[in-house]
Amino acid sequence: MTDIGARKQHQQHQQQRAVALAYQDGDGAPKVVAKGKGLLAERIIERAQEAGVFVHESRELVALLMEVDLDRQIPPALYRVIAELLAWLYHIESSQVSTQVSGAPAPSAPGAANLLESS
């Protein structure tokens, strides 16, 4: 790898950010349970994938969620965005069974820009 390639790869690692949310019955709203940049973000994503947790890519949504403190619930302004994303995920999970049976493709993810614009 060239020096320029190594620098680009390093910059990509530094720019990558990730936020993990969790929701338990009885919670008022999902909580931010992990967040980080660079290598920490990569590790958060790897752990999610290893656990079979869906990873949704949205720079806009991650930027907003990075502002939420750890172990804090998401702010009311993000309820609709997160609810739409969770509804889509539920739909995907429930359609996986019918996809395996019928062979139909799963629906595509809602765009973060669309979700953010609709709130």
TrEMBL record:
Sections of the chain in a coiled coil: none
Sequence segments annotated as region (Disordered): 99-119
Gene3D superfamilies: secretion proteins EscU
Biological-process GO terms, alphabetical: protein secretion
Keywords: Cell projection, Cilium, Flagellum
Composition-biased stretches (Low complexity): 102-113
InterPro entries reported in the protein's UniProt record: T3SS_substrate_exporter, T3SS_substrate_exporter_C
Single GO cellular component term: plasma membrane
The family this protein is said to belong to: Belongs to the type III secretion exporter family.
Protein name per the record: Flagellar biosynthetic protein FlhB
Source organism: Massilia psychrophila
Biological classification of the source: Bacteria, Pseudomonadati, Pseudomonadota, Betaproteobacteria, Burkholderiales
